[in-house]
Amino acid sequence: MRTRDHGWTLRRRVVALLAVVGVLLSILVAAVIAVAAQNREYTHEVLDRWGPARAQSQELLAVLVNQETAVRGYAVTADPENLAPYAASLEREQDLVRDMRALLEPYPALERQLGEVEARAAEWRRTVADPVIAATRDEGTAAGQALIGEQTRQLFDAIRISVALLQQGILAEREVGADNIYRTSTMLVVLLIVAALVVVVAGAVLLVSLDRIVIRPLTDVAGQVREVAEGDYRHRISGSGPPEFVGLASDVDAMRLKIARDLDEVREARERIEWVNSQLQKQAEELTRSNRDLEQFAYVASHDLQEPLRKVASFCQLLQRRYAGQLDERADQYIAFAVDGAQRMQRLINDLLAFSRIGRLTVGFTEVDLNKVMGDVAGQTEAARQYADAELTWGELPVIRGEEPLLTNLLANLVSNSVKFRRPDVPPKVHVSARLVGDEWEISCQDNGIGIEPEFADKIFVIFQRLHAKDAYPGTGIGLAIVKKIVEYHGGRVWVDTSVPEGTAIRFTLPALPEDVETAECVAEGDGTVAPAGETAPAGADEPGATHSGAGDGDGGRTDGVDGPGGAPGDGRTGDMRETVG
Questions:
Q1: Is the CB of residue 543 less than 8 Å from the CB of residue 517?
Q2: What sign results for the dihedral spanned by CA atoms 352, 354, 355, 356?
Q3: Which of 15, 79, 161, 471 has the fewest Cβ atoms within 10 Å of its own Cβ atom?
Q4: Please, what sign has the CA dihedral across residues 442, 445, 450, 456?
Q5: Contact 412, 377 (CB under 8 A)
Q6: 416 Cβ partners below 8 Å, 6+ apart?
Q7: How would you list the strands of the sheet with 429-437, edge to edge?
């Protein structure tokens, strides 16, 4: 896709937006991490420092009160057991002071206040507790009680005040820590809200941007494309927005231009085709009219033209019979020429009529047994074969769909040609065989006649083409043309097999019935071979050199040198038939 050099591309805009959002979120994440660390530190201070310090200060006050109570009790009773709590409280006081000093070390003011409490307690023990204990132990309860008075109470109250001040300081610091926790928690909430707002705003900006720079330009281009698709191929497609979409619109417009040019060419071609069709229609009408004229000509040729021709031939023959030998030799020769020309004209007209009627006058295709057809052919050619001492054989032939009269004419032409184009002093042998090749029957007519040169293999199927003078081999030159037209009318093809060593082999194909093809495939699968289905061996394959020579009245031969023609009986194939005359 082509893009413009100027302007921000869609990729660049999206990357810029994501970069801004990423930077903002990174800053917010860093701030959240810092505030969360502070909040954790403040929470640690409150929970792990000021909580224990406050509890220990309260316990310290209780321990000092226990000391004062134990001294007063001992002064009243002089019982040493009353001093046991005093000793325990004194030891506990030392432990509490040591622990509190470790907690309050970062705070010098509170540490000094703790030192003041410790000093006042030591001063009280020095000036009150120790003298009372000593006086009571040495002089009795009266001496001990005498030392306890208003001044001693004031000294202990000063200790209470010092402890209270220490507790107030600890409580104040704890309140500061709590305020810090609340402040940092509030900041965390604010930062999270800001991050959420950044995400929401970025999403909104992205949606709006997509709508403006993606959806709207694409919708506009799609609308223009629909206009073109509805048939307005002259509508120019223009794009807006990022360079990618402008380039896309340009590419689509280039495609539109190419399609429009192609459509113009198609319209021109269609107009030309319509003109050609109109010309073809005219030609078809002309051909139809011409065919009607030809049919009329055929009718005239078969009736009107042959009538005077028959009269000419009849009277010439009468002259020939009545005045033969009465005129001079030249007159007899002229009369013979006239009779021969009239007869040849009759044969030519009849052959032309037969050629023109192939495919025009049809009775429809039916299933035709070629074995029966060969029986009819044998009967039709019996006279010619008897005259030439010819031998006609054929193998098992298939049943195909076609017109029986045309197929009879086809095989009769081939057999007649084989008999006619024989070698001197060699009895003609003609063999007809068939084999299944794919979905077609390949039928061969092979003889041992004069053969045909390869360069004339195609020429013999052209109407009026002759390879020999009419004095050597009589005929009109239409026979093989009729053969070719009948084969093509039945959907096959015909050719001369120039590979046979002797004589002529003419081969042609005819479509096989579906059941024959299926049977052949089943046989091939059962045998595990791929041999042509339905191939029939020639009767008389023992006799080499049986080929088909001469084709139709126009000299020709057929190709496909398989199955020799003249075969001796007893070739071992059931169903082979032999027709021998002579």
A1: no
A2: positive
A3: 471
A4: negative
A5: yes
A6: 381, 384, 479, 552, 553
A7: 494-497, 505-511, 440-447, 429-437, 391-394, 577-580
Give the number of other CB atoms < 10 A from CB of residue 501.
10
φ/ψ of 185, rounded to 5, equals -65, -40
- Closest CA relative to residue 510, chosen from 414, 399, 427, 432: 399
Q: Are 430 and 392 in contact (CB under 8 A)?
A: yes
* Secondary structure of residue 369 in the 3-state scheme: strand
d(C-alpha 566, C-alpha 296), whole Å:
45
Calculate Rg over the CA atoms of the chain. Answer: 66
* pLDDT for the residue 536: 39
How many helices (DSSP H) and strands (DSSP E) are in the chain?
16, 8
Strand partners, 432: 394, 445
Low-confidence ranges of the chain (pLDDT < 50): 1-5, 469, 472, 528-582
Place of tokens 């810092």: 34
Beta carbons of 566 and 429 less than 8 angstroms apart: yes
Torsion angles phi and psi, residue 577, rounded to 5: -125, 150
Tokens of 274: 């319509």
Phi/psi of residue 444, nearest 5 degrees = -120, 140
Helix 329-357, helix 243-300: angle, nearest 10 = 140
With the CA atoms of 153, 158, 160 and 162 taken in that order, what torsion angle do they form, in degrees rounded to the nearest 10?
Answer: -170
Measuring CA to CA, how many Å separate 83 from each of 80, 137, 144, 170, 492? Answer: 5, 11, 14, 32, 141
Which whole-number Å values give the CA distances from 535 to 99, 369, 436, 437, 495, in the listed order? 120, 16, 6, 8, 19
pLDDT of res. 372: 92
β-sheet bridge partners, residue 433: 444
Q: Rounded to an integer, what distance in angstroms lies between the CA atom of residue 324 and that of residue 317? A: 10
Q: End-to-end distance of the chain based on CA atoms, in angstroms?
A: 90
Inter-residue contact 547 to 451 (CB < 8 Å): yes
Per the structure block, which two tokens stand in for 271? 């107009």
Q: 392 has which bridge partners?
A: 430, 579
Tokens of residue 566, six digits:
């003249």
Residue 307 CA: distances (Å) to CA of 299, 310, 318, 336, 475: 12, 5, 16, 20, 22
d(CA 257, CA 249): 12
Q: What is the pLDDT of residue 53?
A: 86
Backbone angles phi, psi at 238, to 5 degrees: -120, 150
Two tokens at 201? 């705003």
Residue 38 CB partners (closer than 8 Å, separation 6+): 180, 184
pTM of model > 0.70: no
Q: CB–CB of 433/443 below 8 Å?
A: yes
Q: Supply 316's token pair.
A: 């010439």
pLDDT for position 54: 86
Residue closest to 432 by CA, chosen among 580, 572, 539: 539
Is residue 453 exposed (0-12), middle (13-18) or buried (19+ Cβ within 10 Å)? exposed
Whether the Cβ atoms of residue 306 and residue 346 lie closer than 8 Å to each other: yes
Residue where the block lists tokens 């009538």: 307
The torsion region of residue 154 among left (phi > 0), alpha (psi -120 to 50) and beta comes to: alpha
Place of tokens 């694409």: 218
- Of 447, 442, 433, 435, nearest in space to 577 by CA: 433
